[in-house]
Amino acid sequence: MALSLSSFTLLLTLSCFATSSFLCHGFPALHINNPLHSHRHHKVANHNYRDALTKSILFFEGQRSGKLPSSQRMTWRRDSGLSDGSAMHVDLVGGYYDAGDNVKFGFPMAFTTTMLSWSVLEFGGLMKGELPNAREAIRWATDYLLKATAHPGTIYVQVGDANKDHSCWERPEDMDTPRSVFKIDKESPGSDVAAETAAALAAASLVFRRSDPTYSKLLVRRAIKVFQFADKYRGAYSNGLKSFVCPFYCSYSGYEDELLWGAAWLHRATKNPTYLSYIQVNGQTLGAAQYDNTFGWDNKHVGARILLSKAFLVQKVRSLHDYKGHADNFICSLVPGAPFSSTQYTPGGLLFKMSDSNMQYVTSTSFLLLTYAKYLTSAHMVVNCGGAIITPKRLRSIAKKQVDYLLGDNPLKMSYMVGYGPRYPQRIHHRGSSLPSKAVHPAKIQCSSGFSFMKTESPNPNILVGAVVGGPDQHDNFPDERSDYEQSEPATYINAPLVGSLAYLAHSFGQL
Fold first, then answer.
1. What is the mean pLDDT of residues 318-322?
2. Longest Cα pair distance anywhere in the chain, in angstroms?
3. Catalytic: 170?
4. pLDDT at 506 over 50
5. What PROSITE patterns does this protein's entry cite (predicted)?
6. What is the 3-state secondary structure (H, E, C) of 308-374?
7. For residues 131 and 465, what is the distance between their CA atoms, to the nearest angstrom?
């Protein structure tokens, strides 16, 4: 039986008096044996965060579309989508398939790029030999986003007819479904996808500022133009493109959050005071103080708060003082047992937001916790939740617990990262992974023929190393069934923020 949020919080608060769990700092630890929480007394597994980091980045090679380079390490993949864009007489070859299908959705691809870039900006200095691989993963996306924004006043936001693609189960290399191209322009705007694309280009420009200054300048110039377009022609992209982007990547949260997020990234990338002014003037109308604690491909409010709090905490931009308060409210909603806590966790301790691809919220939230802890430490500050003082150390311990759960510290003792640890998902919802590779089966596998492979109980023949799946349900159950896309499908935006968290943890434990 699932606990209600209030019951869960009450139970956790009461149990904090009977356990020394790190979740319960601030409560007296009486060291009474409590069977409800006995799993927390087990010795924490010493995870190989460096190995997990390597694999979390390698995963992106398995999602590549286009002409693969000679350096390709995920060798069961081959070239695909080589004529993408030709339907509109543009070059849209490259980029990433977002998840287990063969469509290129621009909205989650841009968010993936922003989060990979943010991972590198905060923790890239700790990545050592993995930094070049992380940069490659970002560049594979930004090269595509530059193509998608090459024509002023137009952004190409999707390649592939999702409804027709989803009626087939075929390798990307065999695709014969329509590679339809969908765009936004001033007649059919899409401030959400445009501003997210601007954020991605701006964030990536910072990644390449030293290693490739020419490329960096190209990215930031394009980011500025794309943001101007996003702001001038306002509207949600799923209004005009509803039948093509919904229900897959509908813009449920509106476009205001992306405008704030995009401006925040341009402020960080350019230091141009016009973006600071834009944020100060428009912040409230764009939902800066909106009370929500969900951060993912659709809703950027929390990310914008954390990002803008850095300008106040580290760079001492006094006019952004309120963002520290907004960020603190998010933290207080997360900390179990703290006043104002409103977040649900599974019995095994996993942050639980929703049944469909819940792990994306685990990885994005863990990254925000570690990043905010970094900013707070720089400023020698803490979070005050109604009198309960939450330290940066506490934020790091909560984030570590989430990552450790993902890597195997959970009731099923299963890693939710493919290829990591002794037990991991074998039947992920992913076409390329579940069908025999071209090397093994050179002949084309037709659209409907692939479903016989999809329905088999056999493990996937190609290991999509590093892929993090949607994860367990609210009771910590995971059936490992290919047809269960809500729990068994990996996605680029699940992995992107995890890259930063794993770099931090690998460094902290002396593995890098």
1. 92
2. 70
3. no
4. yes
5. GH9_2, GH9_3
6. HHHHHHCCCCHHHHHHHHHHHHHHHHHCCCCCCCCCCECCCCCECCCCCCCHHHHHHHHHHHHHHHH
7. 18
DSSP secondary-structure letter at 36? G
Q: Is the pLDDT of residue 316 over 80?
A: yes
Strand partners, 385: 388
**pLDDT at residue 306, rounded to an integer:** 97
Count the neighbouring beta carbons within 10 Å of the beta carbon of residue 456: 12
Q: Which residues contact 187 (CB under 8 A, 6 or more apart)?
A: none
C-alpha–C-alpha distance, residues 372 and 332, integer Å: 13
Choosing from 47, 429, 430, 507, the catalytic residue is 429
φ/ψ of 348, rounded to 5, equals -80, -5
Q: Which runs of E-coded beta strand occur in 40-197?
A: 104-105, 154-159, 181-185
Sheet holding 154-159, edge to edge: 104-105, 154-159, 181-185
Reading the block at residue 268, the tokens are 């960080």
- Distance between start and end Cα atoms, the chain: 42
| Pairwise CA distance, residues 65 & 46, whole Å | 35
35 upstream amide cis, omega within 30 of 0: no
Q: Is 480 a known active-site residue?
A: yes
Grade residue 290 by pLDDT with cuts at 50, 70 and 90. Answer: confident
- How wide is the angle at C-alpha 351 spanned by C-alphas 36 and 307, nearest 5°? 145
pLDDT over 50 (residue 18): no
Is 489 an annotated catalytic residue? Answer: yes
Confidence of residue 11 (pLDDT cuts 50, 70, 90): very low
Which one of the listed residues 122, 173, 192, 480 is annotated catalytic?
480
Rounded to the nearest 5 percent, the helix, strand and coil shares of the chain are: 50, 5, 45
Instruction: Please give the average per-residue pLDDT across 272-278, as a whole number.
Output: 96
- pLDDT of residue 34 exceeding 60: no
Q: Which domains does the chain have, with CATH numbers?
A: 5-41 (no CATH), 49-424+464-508 (1.50.10.10)
* Enclosing H/E stretch for 504: helix 492-508
Report the interhelical angle of 321-334 vs 301-313 (nearest 10°).
Answer: 130
Per-residue HEC secondary structure of 458-478 comes to: CCCCCCCCCCECCCCCCCCCC
* Neighbouring C-beta atoms of residue 321, cutoff 10 Å: 11
pTM of the entire structure? 0.91
Long-range contacts, 53-56 (Cβ 8 Å, 24+): 53/127, 53/130, 53/499, 53/502, 53/503, 53/506, 53/512, 54/130, 54/133, 54/466, 55/417, 55/419, 55/420, 55/465, 55/466, 56/417, 56/466, 56/468, 56/495, 56/498, 56/499, 56/502
490 has pLDDT over 80 = yes
The Cα–Cα gap between 62 and 401 comes to 28
The one catalytic residue among 51, 256, 328, 489: 489
